[in-house]
Write a structure and sequence with these properties.
With 287 residues, this protein is mainly α. The protein has two domains: 2-16 and 99-286, Orthogonal Bundle (Hypothetical protein af1432); 17-96, no CATH class. It has helices at 2-11, 20-29, 36-43, 47-57, 72-79, 81-92, 105-126, 130-141, 145-153, 155-164, 174-182, 186-198, 202-209, 224-237, 256-260, 264-286. It has 16 helices and no strands.
C-alpha cells in the first residue's frame, strides 16, 4: 500500500497545484527589487482576498493592538511583505483541497493556523537563523497537510479508516495507526506532496516530515522542525486540536520552556492571543 500511495501522490492529477496568486507573490518575493506597490497591485486584483487580508491584519494574531486599518496598502505596509505571503497561504490553502466528509476541515485549518502562529511567535525568541524564522509560520501551517493529501488520493480507504475505526479511544498516535493501516503516515505523505507539487522550502518540508519527533533536551540547539513539533504539542495541550486525533497524549518535554527561552507567562500570552485570533480566522474559513 505504501508504494501505491506514494505513486498516487506523485501522479494524481486531481491534487491541487499551488494557487496562481501564491505563485505570483512568490515570484515577486524572489525579486530583490520587489516593493510594496508591486505586492499591492497583485493582491488588489482579488477584492475578496483584499478584504480578508485586511480582516486578518486587524485581528489579534497580527494586529498587535494597533489602530485598525481599512486600507489594503496600509495593511501590507503594517504586516510586511513576508507576512503578507504567509497570510495569503493561510487564506488560500484551505480552498485548494476537495472537501470531503471524513472530518471538519475548518477545525483542521484552525489547528494548523494555531500551530503556525505559535511556531512563529516562539521562533522569534528561540531561533537565530533568519531563514528559519521566516519559514516558521508556513512550516507550522503545513505540518499536517499529509492528512488532506491522504483524504484526496485514497478517499474511500481514508474515510473508512477515520470513521469505522474507533480512533478517538486509541492510546496510539495517529501516525502509528496510519502506518499499521497503510504502511505510511501523513508526515511522509505531506512531505512528498510538497516536494512534488508545491516546491516549498526544504525547511518547511523537513518540518512536516518530523513534526511528531521529540524536541531537544536543554542545552542542545533547537531546530525549526523541533520547534514545529513542540508548537503542535503546545496547541494540543491547550485544546486547540484538529478533528483527526486519538486519545494519545504527547506533552512537551520537561524543561521545554527553558529550551524555548520563554516564561510560562509569556507562553500564556501567546496562547491567549492565538485563541482570540482564531475567532476572526474561523469566520473567514467558514465563508
Amino acid at each position: 500500500m505504501r508504494e501505491k500511495i506514494l505513486e498516487l501522490v506523485r501522479t494524481n492529477p486531481d491534487l491541487p497545484p499551488l494557487p496562481e496568486i501564491l505563485l505570483g507573490l512568490q515570484k515577486l518575493m524572489d525579486d530583490p527589487d520587489c516593493e510594496v506597490e508591486d505586492v499591492y497591485r497583485l493582491i488588489k486584483t482579488d477584492p475578496v482576498m483584499s478584504g480578508r487580508l485586511i480582516t486578518l491584519a486587524n485581528s489579534a494574531l497580527f494586529g498587535s493592538g494597533r489602530d485598525k486599518t481599512r486600507n489594503l496598502e496600509n495593511a501590507i505596509v503594517r504586516l510586511g511583505m513576508k507576512q503578507v505571503l504567509d497570510l495569503v497561504y493561510a487564506l488560500e490553502l484551505p480552498k485548494t483541497f476537495n472537501k470531503r466528509k471524513a472530518f471538519d476541515q475548518v477545525e483542521f485549518w484552525k489547528h494548523s493556523l494555531a500551530v503556525a502562529f505559535i511556531t512563529r511567535s516562539l521562533a522569534r525568541k528561540a531561533l537565530s537563523d533568519i531563514d528559519d524564522i521566516e519559514s516558521s509560520f508556513l512550516a507550522g501551517l503545513m505540518h499536517d497537510v499529509g492528512i488532506l493529501v491522504l483524504d484526496n488520493v485514497i478517499p474511500q480507504e481514508y474515510f473508512n479508516f477515520l470513521t469505522l475505526k474507533d480512533l478517538s479511544s486509541s492510546d496510539k498516535p495517529l501516525y502509528l495507526l496510519e502506518v499499521a493501516e497503510f504502511e505510511i503516515a501523513h508526515p511522509e505523505v505531506g512531505a512528498e506532496f510538497m516536494r512534488k507539487w508545491w516546491s516549498l522550502s526544504p525547511k518547511v518540508v523537513s518540518a512536516a516530515l518530523a513534526h511528531h519527533d521529540k524536541g531537544p533536551v536543554k542545552g542542545e540547539p533547537l531546530t525549526l522542525s523541533q520547534l514545529v513539533s513542540m508548537a503542535n504539542r503546545i496547541a494540543n495541550r491547550n485544546e486547540i486540536t484538529h478533528p483527526v486525533s486519538t486519545a494519545f497524549e504527547d506533552p512537551p518535554e520537561e524543561g521545554y520552556l527553558d529550551v524555548l527561552q520563554v516564561s510560562q507567562e509569556e507562553l500564556d500570552v501567546v496562547i491567549d492571543t492565538t485563541v482570540m485570533g482564531l475567532m476572526a480566522a474561523e469566520t473567514l474559513l467558514r465563508s
